[in-house]
Amino acid sequence: MNLLDVKNLFVEYKTSSPTSGEKTVYAVSDLSLCVKKGEVYSIAGESGCGKSTFIKAVLRLIPSKSGEINFEGNDILKMDKKALKDFRCKAQMIFQNPYASLNPKMTVFDTLKEPLEINFKGLKKEDYISKVKEIAKSVGLKDEDLKKYPHEFSGGQRQRIAIARALILKPALVFADEPVSALDVSIQGQIINLLNDLKSSLGLTFVFISHDLNVIRYISDRVGIMYLGEMVEEGLVEDIFSNAKHPYTQALLSANPNSETEKIILQGELPSPLNPPAGCKFHTRCSFAKEICKTQKPKTTYFSDDHYAKCHLFT
Ligand code: SF4
User: Fold this and answer.
1) What digits encode the pLDDT tens for the residues 3-20?
2) Minimum CA distance residue for ligand 1 atom 3
3) Where do the H-state alpha helices sit in 175-296?
């Protein structure tokens, strides 16, 4: 069953400067994806490809231009204030930087109690305490940690607090935006294992964003590859890592230090979303580009029920 079903989503916004005037940023273009209940769906792509913008659009933190974002069958873009509040209770976010995402003036107990106070007014004091202790324990925090402030913890411990805060409302869907990239390498594995354990024990569904392909390979069920606001390939994690079809996916995977395939050096930088190339947006950097790639968007080719790519090489 699909928990999240995004159809033909476009996110565009205006920027302006004294020299170039007002311009449109084409941040997400015609993006469709489904996230099944209980899976980890990861999105990979270079910085600036629109991954984080996509999450903000799903949470309605920024407006979308058009499309549908269905959560449990209801379109988030059409929700009124009350329905949106209920949705945000069920969809929580783990941010990249635990240093910035925690209030330095609040103890861990108050940090974890706050979402309960906002969403479940009228709970008894002992209920707050037991729920806070329960979630703190599940992320590896001790009772005595609840009296402390964020500055008394290491980066990894702070991310455990941030994870506990995201999970205390028992969300159905968790967005994790580069949740380990700000941490020491030695700690990253612990946090990824924790997220994996919590996924099983609490039956969570994740939308996971990372530029670290090893992390994505370890934690994901399915992976979508995003380039300049568009999904160019999607598949089960083993299909993407062992049988990638799209030239961009192949280049991305070859850049992974653990890759045994020959490195594919991409030409040039990621183009600006202010002025994306026509046709296949990847044509300015693709060594397989043909004339048709410069003018026509490639159609979707399915290689199996779960694996597709958008590239003229297959049409
Ligand atoms: Fe390369 Fe053309 Fe395929 Fe785009 S459509 S990835 S430019 S071959």
Assistant:
1) 999 999 999 999 988 887
2) 311
3) 185-202, 213-219, 237-242, 247-254, 291-295
